Every structure is written in C-alpha cells, then in structure tokens.
C-alpha cells in the first residue's frame, strides 16, 4: 500500500506546488491523476520516487517511510517503485533486451552491471514480460529503431523488471498517437490486474482516465479537489479542477469534440 500524508513540496520561497496532500493507493487499483498544467501531478510522482525531495510530510510504501531515506536504504526502496516516463528514457544505442534488463540494475553487483551479465532467471523473466506485451521479437533490435508505442512498451517492461510494489506512469501516452495511447492504457490496466500491482498514472486525457482507470484524483494548484470513481467525475468536478479553463481537445480525447460537446471530453 502507498500512503501519502500531508505532503508538501515547495521550491525555495515560492508558493508550495503540493499543499498538504493526502492520498492512499492499495491493491491492484489503477488511479489516474488529472489537472491542469502546473497542478502538481508530475511533482507528486517525482516526490514518491524521490526524484524530487519533499519539503515535508510522509510517503509510506508497504510500511517503509520513504521521505527520510538516504544512501543504500533509498536505493533499495527505489527498486520497489517502477516508473514509466513520457519520453521513454531508453538508451537508444542499446537493444530492447539490454534496456529491459536495466530494470534489474538495482539487484546486481557492479561487475554484472558493467558487463551486462545478468542472471539467467532475469533473462527468462525479461523474455516472458516482453512476450506478454508483444515485443519479444524485438529483443535484439536497437531501441532507436522502434515506434513510439513499441518504445513505451519497453519502458513498461523495464519498470516491471524491478518487481515493483507500485508502478508510476508520468504522462505515458502524451507522446503517442490516439490509437497507440489507448493500447498503452489498456496494457497498464490489464497488467495491474494480472500482477496485483497498484498503478498511479499522471494523465491529461480525461476521457482515457474515465475509461481505463477505476479511480480519478483531481489536483488544482497542489490541492486535492476530487477523489472518486469515474462515474462520479462530472462537469462540476471538471470545472472545480480546471477552473473553467478548457484544455486542448487532443490532450483530453485524442480527437476533436463533436458539435456541442464539452472540450474536456465529457458529454
């Protein structure tokens, strides 16, 4: 279980980006985080995996308090936090298999990491996961020869190779075309169920959040405005989160809204 209590993140003397945020994610739930640019969505994920240092508050993953960890303890904790990035963050000159096995770097010694000599069990798990997401036939292909959707699948498998207790996805579909975006969201949804893995997705596309996640968390100016089921995410919730500011059509629905349809993708 991931439990966040009174999380605050402030840069210097500026207004806090996150303002006393409380959030709990458990089981195999798929939770989407929505909100306008600057709402604190990415900052929240980066605080969870300690890419950003929280100013105050508590972040606990399966009983381990993450906020004050340092050195070896922090590296060990990060092994249990999988991360899928908007920009893929692959090493283009390496093969798909080498990129996937990079998810095991926190578990192998320095010699194995430098020579990329991973245990056979890791290689077999990598093949199994790649087969599951449909990229096993690209195992020996360089990462820079793949399409965006294929690259994102590599990123998902790399994160799963960490055997994480929680999977974070920061705008995983933002760089993809609408059809591929749907496929990636369906993949994350099904993997959460299969692996009993909680997934927390930062996403602009409200329509996809309503379709592929079972819970929506809405942020506005670093404050939690909405936390509930997609069926309850109505126009009132939408306006409370976005303040009446309409987001670009393609960032919400992936296609222009029909005549008379609200630009956030809600009928």
UniProtKB/TrEMBL annotation:
Region described as Disordered: 246-267
Xref: CDD domains: ABC_PhnC_transporter
Cross-referenced Gene3D superfamilies: P-loop containing nucleotide triphosphate hydrolases (3.40.50.300)
InterPro entries: AAA+_ATPase, ABC_transporter-like_ATP-bd, ABC_transporter-like_CS, ABC_transpr_PhnC, MetN_ABC_transporter-like, P-loop_NTPase
GO MF, one annotated term: ATP binding
Entry keyword set: ATP-binding, Cell membrane, Membrane, Nucleotide-binding, Translocase, Transport
Record protein name field: Phosphonate ABC transporter ATP-binding protein
Organism: Halomonas dongshanensis
The gene coding this protein: phnC
